[in-house]
Amino acid sequence: MSEAETRNGHYPYQAPIDAYGNNGFRFADMSHRGALLCLPTGMQAWHEAGEGAPQLSWFAPVLALADSIEVLMIGMGSEPVFLDPAIREAFRAHGVVVEAISTGSAVRTYNILLAEKRAVAAALIAVERVR
Fold first, then answer.
1. Edge-to-edge strand order for the sheet containing 30-33?
2. Which runs of E-coded beta strand occur in 40-91?
3. Per-residue model confidence as pLDDT tens digits over 62-105
4. What angle do CA 6, 102, 112 make, to 5 degrees?
5. Domains of the chain
6. Strands (DSSP E) along 42-83, which ranges?
7. Which of 60, 61, 55, 120 is nearest to 86 (CA)?
8. Rounded to whole angstroms, what are the CA distances from 107 to 26, 57, 94, 113, 120?
9. Would you say 99 and 106 are in contact if contact means Cβ atoms under 8 Å apart?
10. Mean per-residue pLDDT for 105-115?
11. Contact 20/50 with Cβ under 8 angstroms?
12. What gap in Å lies between CA 66 and CA 50, rounded to an integer?
């Protein structure tokens, strides 16, 4: 992995999440603070994620790879938040199943599907405390 990729918040492989909480995630012997995208092209900071209910625009990096994803796990933080039907429809048009659940549940399910070598992706909002 190049130094530039590390500085830009990109790890070029998809990896299981080892831990989450304290506003971040641990994977591949590294830590990341803030929201995280786990994509077929690697792990990267999810800069688009903001406050409030998720917006379709937040998912542009994921939609760009939708043809190589079967399931998208969306970790919505500590408590699930309403997911705009337009988001589900945008992914449904590409044949992607979307599950919007708590971040902890999304991490656990993502890890299982990744271990099964399924075409899974995750968009994870960081949480302070693990429940």
1. 19-21, 24-27, 30-33
2. 42-45, 71-75
3. 999 999 999 999 999 988 778 999 999 999 999 999 999 999 99
4. 70
5. 3-124 (3.40.1230.10)
6. 42-45, 71-75
7. 55
8. 11, 22, 23, 10, 11
9. yes
10. 98
11. no
12. 21
Model confidence over 48-65: pLDDT tens digits?
998 888 999 999 999 999
Residue type (1 letter), 49: A
Indicate if the alpha-carbon torsion angle 5, 10, 11, 12 is positive or negative: negative
- Residue type present at position 114: L
What are the beta bridge partners of residue 45? 36
Task: Give phi and psi for 21, each to the nearest 5.
Answer: 125, 175
Q: How far, rounded to the nearest angstrom, does the alpha carbon of residue 26 sit from its chain's CA centroid?
A: 13
Spatial separation of the C-alpha atoms in residues 113 and 71, rounded to whole Å:
9
> Is the pLDDT score of 1 beyond 60?
no
Three-class DSSP category at 98: strand
| 30: Cβ contacts below 8 Å, ≥ 6 apart | 11
Give bridge partners of residue 39 from the DSSP assignment: 42
